[in-house]
Specification:
Blueprint: E1 3-4, E2 11-14, H1 17-27, H2 33-51, E3 57-63, E4 68-74, E5 79-85, H3 88-98, E6 103-111, E7 118-124, E8 133-137, E9 140-141, H4 145-155, E10 161-165, E11 168-169, H5 171-180, E12 186-188, E13 190-191, E14 194-195, E15 201-202, H6 208-213
Parallel strand pairs: 2-12, 5-6, 5-8, 8-10, 9-11, 10-12, 11-13
Antiparallel strand pairs: 1-2, 3-4, 6-7, 14-15
Bound molecules: uracil.
Residues 87, 140, 142, 199-201, 204, 207-209 line the site of uracil.
């Protein structure tokens, strides 16, 4: 899988053809809830490849059928996937398929429709966050306000590192997140044109939560 880093440092565009093909299918307005969810699941597995690329590894001694060797394993338990409710669940499921040992945190934020500012209603993280690497997941980095608030809250627990994974973003979302948290790399499958007046990404894919859960 290849990434391009030339748009801005710390913004990783996951431009692998499989990811781009599946994203195009997800964007189409006639794609069913069932297909949308499956595609998000598949893309999330592919994006997990990118975001875990530099994960620390441990050496363990194992027996092959022929001899003893020292081999590498990842310490999945050190990784925490933090889902921004509710749409983050769509990415979480796919990532857990490939990193089943990861711990999971949840943060509930809703966007006040008038101010577009995030309001927290739920926060639950694993123990010992100081020892863990965090990957925050939310399909849409739009205004960036929820991501900024979620990361601010997670930082109070002093994890070792934080990365942010989304499916789609736009220049406004990137700028807001980069300004507040320049130390947090962003992984995305696309950077769309702009936000509209309601905080939706254009051309985008609509409301990710509604499309994942069929609630529209
Ligand atoms: N949240 C969504 O679900 N879609 C957008 O376009 C922006 C925010």
């Amino acid at each position: 899988m290849s990434t391009s880093n030339d748009l801005a440092p710390q913004v990783h565009l996951v431009n692998h053809p499989l990811v781009q093909h599946k994203l195009t299918l997800m964007r189409k307005k006639d794609t069913s809830t069932n297909s949308f969810r499956s595609l998000l699941n598949e893309i999330s597995m592919l994006m997990a490849f990118e975001v875990t690329r530099d994960m620390p590894m441990l050496d363990v001694e194992i027996e092959t059928p022929l001899e003893t060797m020292t081999a590498k394993v990842i310490d999945g338990k050190k990784l925490v996937l933090v889902s921004i409710l509710r749409a983050g669940t769509g990415i979480l499921d796919g990532m857990l398929t490939v990193v089943p040992g990861a711990r999971v945190g949840h943060i509930g934020l809703y966007r006040d429709p008038k101010t577009l500012q995030p309001v927290e209603y739920y926060f639950k993280m694993p123990q010992d966050m100081q020892e863990r690497d965090v990957v925050v997941v939310d399909p849409m980095l739009a205004t960036g306000n929820s991501a900024v608030a979620a990361i601010e809250r997670i930082k109070t627990l002093q994890p070792k590192s934080i990365k942010f994974v989304c499916l789609l973003t736009c220049p406004e979302g990137i700028a807001t997140l980069r300004k507040a948290h320049p130390d947090v790399p962003i992984y995305t499958a696309a950077i769309d044109r702009q936000l509209n007046a309601h905080g939706y990404i254009l051309p985008g894919l609509g409301d990710a939560g509604d499309r994942i859960f069929g609630t529209q």
